Amino acid sequence: MSLYIYEPRIHLFAFSNKENTENNKNKNWIWDKCNEIISKATLSQNFDIFEHINLDTNNTNLIKKFQDEDAYQPIFFDENTNIITDKFNKDEDLILQHTSNSSIYAVQVDDNYGLCINFNFNHPRIVTQGVEVNQLRFLNPNNVLTLENERNESCQFVGQTLIVTAQLLEQDNNKTNKELRNLAKQCIKAIFPNKHYTFNRQGQLFNSPIFEYGSLRRKSLGRYQHILIWFFYDRQEREKFYKNYNDFLDLFLYRSRIISAFKEIRRQENLIAKDLKEINDQIDSLHSRKNNKNPTEEELFFLKDKLTKLPKMAIEYGKKIGAMYDLQSRTVVEDNLLLYNHKLIDLEDTTNIFSEKDIDYFIKFTETNCRTFLEKTIAKSRYFEHSSTLTDNAIASVRGQIAIEQTELEIQRQKREAKSQYKQQITILAIGSGIAAGEIFASSYDLIGEEKLPLLTSSYIHPFFLSIFYSLLFGSFVAILIWTTPNIWNFRNQTRELTKIKKIPSFKVVQRLLHNKNNRRNNSSR
């Protein structure tokens, strides 16, 4: 069974930064998108927004003929995109033009451009005011109404709100909320056939049912789209909307800024979590390397190099935490929440159009969605700050342990060098003793006289042999004394230390336990 709506319209509220944050290319991105949307949605190539706006002005209205006015003013165009040049001073005239023609608002607020396109459905393929819901697909060719697709190409995009309004047929006035929600769902499917947008909530605005799509979930925030399907029961409710069009533009601008800040916060959270994981992985790798009981100098130098990089990573980590905190507290979210709430208070106090229920519908965004998001963000910030402290402590601990190991390695190296030098000294001493013995031998050679007895006799030991024998015996004694004295001294020191250890009560307990264990083992073997 086909579903029908009466006089459907699309209202696109889109916002961008005036300057590209990364480069100076494509500064007119949002106005180029405006021309693209008009040409594709209306099948007309006659419209060029640059003919009607002045981007060099400091006034709120960018439309040339309204630059002297503070209030937002639109330009109207017919089904052939021909500009309607008449000026309209009365609210009734503006409402009439809104209901009969399409319109464009082009404004600048602080550092943002605001574009609002209001389509009537005088589409070449839609020839009646009673429109079958499936025909709405003609108004979003190639998903041209979703500017979020351009986010990766331009850092200027801030956010958008898409509203689909329609007059309910007389026979639909008694439909239940469930039936109206199904009608809204079919509208979403027709306009976005290849997309799925989560239903968020249902409410009442100007006593008419409104259905909000696009859920503010942290994990899917990057794909968030704000879409409203709004059904009017009568024309008076629709006229209230047109009469306060400027107020809706302001509210959606503040909302888009807040959502954009939320997206940036989520991006920062993901980057911080990635950095934290990388830092923890580096610390774990340091611990695995450090567990080596006998680290080499190369390993210690490797660990030292890692420790010089970790503080830099920790500093970048801290800067990102600070950037996330600035977004949530001072620069964007807090300021625009105040602007959003002040706007609602002003609407309630100064107009007779917005009832308390209407204000409640808008205030749920700040009291429910924003509060929940900010509470979780604050919890995340505390977690990251606590992790930062733990990371600093871990780096300091590893650095201290590595410094100790490096000191121990240096002491061992010095001991090896001292031992090597000691052996060299002993060797030199031994060689010196040999040389001394040689000299004794040389001096003993003169003891052989021509008139003395022969060297080899059976009854007499020649003095020459006695001199060599005593020289060798003395040299050997000196060499043995040189070699053994250090070892005896070390053994004496070790024995003294062992004696001290044996006097410790805990050592006696361990000794007794070992003795009992040996006794049990002997008994079991028997």
Task: Describe what you observe in this structure.
Helix content is 56%, strand content 13%. The chain is α+β, with helices and mostly antiparallel strands and 526 residues long. The protein folds into two domains: 4-243, no CATH class; 263-413. Strands 1, 2, 3, 4, 5, 6, 7, 8, 9 and 10 form a ten-stranded mixed β-sheet that branches. Strand 4 (102-109) and strand 5 form a beta hairpin. Helix 5 (245-290) runs antiparallel to helix 6 and helix 7 packs antiparallel against helix 8. It is rod-shaped. It starts with a strand and ends with a helix. The model is unreliable at 123-127 (pLDDT under 50).
In a few lines, what is going on in this structure?
By secondary structure, the protein is an alpha+beta fold.
Features:
single chain; about 525 residues; alpha+beta; 2 domains; ten-stranded mixed β-sheet; 10 strands; about 15% strand
The helix/strand series, from N terminus to C terminus, equals: EHEEHEEEEHEEEHHHHHHH
> Based on DSSP secondary structure assignment, what is the total number of beta strands?
10
Helix content: 55-70%
If helices are DSSP runs of H or I spanning 4 or more residues, what is the number of helices? 10
User: In angstroms, what separates the terminal alpha carbons?
Assistant: 97 Å
- Over the alpha carbons, how many angstroms does the gyration radius reach? 46 Å
Major sheet details:
10 strands, mixed
Mean pLDDT: 76
Count of discrete structural domains? 2
Q: Which structural class do the helices and strands define? A: alpha+beta
Shape: rod-shaped
Strand content: 5-15%
